[in-house]
Amino acid sequence: MNKLLEALSGQLIVSCQAEAGFPLNKPEHLVALAKTALMGGAAGIRASKPENIRAMRQAIDQPIIGIFKKAYPGFEVYITPTFEDAEQVIRAGADIIALDATSRPRPGSLPLKELIQKIKSKYKLPIMADIATLEEGLQAVAFGADLIGTTLSGYTAASEGQPMPNLALVAELASQLDVPIIAEGGISTPEEARAALVAGAYAVVVGSMITRPHLITERFVSALKPKVGIEHVAVIDIGGTKISFGVVDPHGKVLKKGRIKTPVNEGGKQILSQIVLKMEQFLDDIPHLSPRAMGISTGGQVSASGELVGGTDMIPNWIGTPLKSVLRDHFGLPVAVVNDGHAASLAEASYGAGQGKTSMLCVVIGTGLGGGLVIDGQLQHGANGLAGSIGQIKITSKSGDYVPLEEMVSGPGLVRAYNRLSNKTTVLDSGEQVSKLAHDGDDTAMSVVQEMGTYLGLGLSHALHVYDADCVVVGGSVAQLGDLLLDSARKSLEQFGHASVAKTPIMLAKLGNQAQLIGASLYVRLRLLG
Q1: Are 140 and 148 spatial neighbours (Cβ–Cβ below 8 Å)?
Q2: For residue 465, what is the enclosing H or E element?
Q3: What is the predicted pLDDT for the residue at 386?
């Protein structure tokens, strides 16, 4: 083993990164963070983006693990996705190059094995493979990776619901591999860092709990607030396609997650019975977390008192289902119910793309079209629970019909548009299929995605003329289309919007499929704290 890696054995590596919009997101600030971490005894730094790595290289001699966080539309892989991205990091001065080594599709022309081999052949640098599962770690080493990091455990579909930090994964990797295992992801205390070494980690990476002052401040502020007996919150998100279960801690971290397919054809009473049964099984598996309250995110119109007063076409016979009372009485926990679009909005405003904005309109495109409005950190409910819910705005379709925006801007709307234009030569049944074809360059699929973006921009122009929000955040499963959808929406907003709102930023949501769970937990805390 070379001296570079030996210097990291049993040591702390500090991840010095800051996202767009944060005050510390400048090379000189990140260099200062890195120097401060090294002054405290850290043995190395993990850093993102060539400009930041280059500045650090000029200022410090200790090992730098370099990455390049770069989003490519249609792909979830964003940690040093391509060879060109890796080259920029290496030329900036990184000693170790880290990249996403999960089994998810990646952009660029090189599959993972060839990417690793090309980097090692040309640059001779150690490669750290960021993985989420044991199988991915074993495969990465077979492909030539020199270190394995548990960085992505809990962040991918294949590792959904895994605990953070995932010390069991660290132990499994350490027992089956001879390369250094770097414990990273969800480590927030010195005790957890020590436990990672005991589990078999070669070194430990800690980021947010050291280098993000706002999170450290939040922990102190939270400790000073009056206690109301709430620690962890059990959460349920009920959608037209799936029902997700989770437990969320006071800082918005989803500690455990599971899901089932929504039995939409069985009606409200049967769906509620399934929810009770599955939630009971879910909580039985995590007795150590002991949630003190329950938050429910659901499609449909929810009153201020938490009753389902309006339905959603995606879940038949849903109006009047006594979610709140049944779950409260069965589990003996205080329960709050919130519309799923409102829940996602609250989460994105607090922890996601809308963080730091004075006002934010969130749009959630999935089986339906939901949304919410957050102003000065406060979720706007409205007199009837419909504030920010733009799905029922009426627009004129190409055929001249006067229809709800949701009919054109949703997963089912995307499928209908594709099947209409394809002349039935290819009949699809899911928005995911259309999305994949669009990313592959299929002309018909790209056309219907851009058409949907045009309708979205039109609907947003109506909403922004009323709400005049600082920004629009777009989430939900269909939003994975990325700029292919959003660029069309931006052009449409410019075309239809008044000059004062025409340039309103339209941004991709950051919290993915965890947004509703996090938002439901936040809603519970806000309601119970009064």
Answers
A1: yes
A2: helix 443-467
A3: 81
pLDDT given at position 208: 85
Give one word for 116, left, alpha or beta, with left for phi > 0 and alpha for psi -120 to 50.
alpha
- pLDDT for res 33: 94
Q: CB 16: neighbour CB atoms within 10 A?
A: 27
217: burial class by Cβ within 10 Å (0-12, 13-18, 19+)? exposed
Lookup: tokens for 412: 């089912």
This prediction's pTM: 0.57
Helix (H, G, I), strand (E, B) or coil at 184: strand
Tell me the C-alpha distance between 530 and 523, whole Å: 11
pLDDT at 91 (0 to 100) = 95
Which amino acid is it at 377?
G
Strand order in the sheet with 233-238: 254-261, 242-248, 233-238, 293-298, 335-339
**238: Cα within 13 Å, side-chain hemisphere:** 31
Q: Which amino acid is at 500?
A: S
Outline where DSSP puts E strands in 353-502. Answer: 359-365, 369-375, 378-379, 394-396, 402-404, 471-475
Cβ density class 338-377: b for 16+ within 10 Å, e for less: bbbbbbbbbbbbbbbbbbebebbbbbbbbbbbbbbbbbee
Q: What is the CA radius of gyration of the chain?
A: 24
Phi first, then psi: what are they for 418, rounded to 5°?
-65, -50
> What is the H or E stretch that residue 341 is in?
helix 340-351
Mean pLDDT by 10 residues, the chain (530 residues): 84 88 86 94 94 95 94 87 95 95 90 94 94 95 96 85 86 94 91 92 92 80 61 87 88 87 78 87 80 88 75 70 86 88 92 90 87 88 82 81 86 86 75 83 88 92 91 88 90 92 92 91 78
